[in-house]
Amino acid sequence: MNSRFVPDAATRSDPLRQTPTAAVVTASYAPDFERCRLLCETMDRQVSGVAHHYILVEHRDVAQFRQLETGSRTVVDERDLLPRWLRVVDDPASLFRRRVWLSLKTQPLRGWHVQQLRRIAIAAQAKEDVLVFCDSDVAFVRPFDLSAFCRDGKVRLFRRDGVLSGEGHEEHRIWSRNAGSALGIDRSKVSTHDYISTLIAWRRQTVTAMCARIEKVHGRSWVEVVGSKRKFSECMIYGRYVDEVLEGAGHFHGSEEFCRVHWTGEALSDDEFRRFVAAMAPQQVAIGMQSFIGTDIGRIRRLIGLGRS
Fold first, then answer.
1. Which of 41, 195, 214, 239 is paired with 9 by a 20 to 30 Å CA distance?
2. pLDDT confidence tier of residue 116, bands split at 50, 70 and 90
3. Pairing label, strands 22-27, 52-57
4. Which domains does the chain have, with CATH numbers?
5. What CA–CA distance (Å, rounded) separates 260 from 271?
């Protein structure tokens, strides 16, 4: 998994082509299959400017997700993205209901950790200029063109300024500190910015340069470095790399969120769902219903006009 080092200066001096290509990247797993199917259907109806859609899954889920493949949509096996020394097994601590990824080089990792590693790793295989990350529990309800993420040869970096300086963000601050450590940023430099959201974009070449920097700083695979701590965020790593290593080169900032997400609480009733959609901001084009909340996928389909699955 060691990649050839690409100097940070390369990303600074290489703008996007005049008409950049963009791919959507979705990391998913078997319990979210029907949600991912709905995402694909709404993308095909509402989203333009998509050169390709990559769905990243664990090896045992590949056959199921192959049903969603088209000429412009590919299911990618994590075995083709991550090193073979990262082995996945049923977790006895959860009575074998959950999965855990084990190695001698990282902490034990859960599915949400490995999904983040997949999102980083796809940059080494994708051909498109821009990678747009969209969770599998998202559905598009308004037309959207991926050109919204590009401007004058630069890619939009989602950033909410100064958020981490307030109360109630301790976990985010830990993710940010660990991102700085992975990137070799001086520990005295503390970021207060939040880079985490749904439906955001990265510049593919910047991701590969970021991984190369991590490997140069630490002398080992970026997967080992990132996975050596269990509290990490791929969005924090990318955001701090762009802002503090590249000094923003190749990017412009935006704080508006394109997806309205129901993060916590109870599943919404029909009326609550309609009010949730009606309250979307003008720039928001998609909704996210966190899968662990348990909102019925058939209800979502019906209320956004796609009938039953």
1. 195
2. very high
3. parallel
4. 8-303 (3.90.550.10)
5. 17
